[in-house]
Amino acid sequence: MKKEVNEKITDLRNEIVSEEIKERDRKLFESQKELMDIVQKESIEHGKEDTADLLKKEKAIMLFKNETEGQKLTYNMSTTIVEPLRNNRFIVSFPKELDVVEWSIKSITMPIISRRKCGDTVIVFRKFIKPLTSKTIVNLVSKKNFDINVKFLDATGAPIENWCISVKKAISVDFGGFLDYSDDGVSEIKVVFKTKDCILKD
Question: Which domain holds residue 12?
Answer without folding.
Answer: 2-76
